[in-house]
Amino acid sequence: MKELVSIITPSYNSAEFIEETIQSVLSQTYENWEWLISDDRSKDNTVELIRKYNDPRIKLHVLEKNGGAGNARNKSLERAEGRYIAFLDSDDFWYPEYLDEMIGFMDKNNAELVYCNYSRCDEHTMEPVLKDFEADTIVTFSNLLKTCRLAPVSTMYDTKRVGKFFFPVKSKREDHVMWLNLLKKIPKGYPLNKTLAKYRMRENSVSRKKKNIIRDQYLVYKDFMGFSTVKSLYYTANWAFNGFLKYSKIFN
Description:
The protein is α/β, with parallel strands linked by helices. It has helices at residues 18-26, 46-51, 69-79, 98-108, 141-146, 159-162, 174-185, 213-224, 229-247, and strands at residues 5-11, 33-39, 58-62, 84-87, 93-94, 113-122, 128-133, 155-158, 190-201. Strands 1, 2, 3, 4, 5, 6, 7, 8 and 9 form a 9-stranded mixed beta sheet that branches. Helix 8 packs across helix 9. It is globular and about 55 Å long. Residues 6-132 form the Glycosyltransferase 2-like domain. InterPro entries: Glyco_trans_2-like, Nucleotide-diphossugar_trans. This is Glycosyltransferase. It comes from Chryseobacterium gambrini.
């Protein structure tokens, strides 16, 4: 029997997009999955929309209080029983072959972690607004310090090989900190240079807000990696420059 995949999703006020996300999971050609959705006290009808789907693999947990995306992901991770951990935010999208391709590539390369290309799309039309982000480089702890090539929508890891990794709830750059902690344990993650997902570029997304983002990234190195001030400033500068290249339409 195929190994179980645990899909980790935080949801908060996602009614506008959640059903498209749900359909992308239900359409997966790889069918042995559990979907652990932790709703972070949505104020719209997100919960009602999720509950419409009568599939025992969809496991919704409504949290007692709002605690942020990192905390919501952690609550799902605590309950996850699958060998493979995959992440899908409540407004993003997978192509039907996502799980099949990712797991097949992971097995073929004997990899603990893999990531793939993803489209960067308008939040309403889901049409590309930048060229696809390409998984064209092996990721290591060293190169992940300078730019975060791993996105939840396009990354999977093997808990049998590395265990579970949780998100620091006190960081606003929790994804990057979690990936760095994981890459401390394994030598590298492998790139699957094929577009298998869509990332919705929302204007009100925390990750897209410019205010305080440099400071938050600096704290990734200073507080969570334990680097010196000079070393933290060096990596923050590298991250900012690479982020400009990643998102500027001049280069995309």
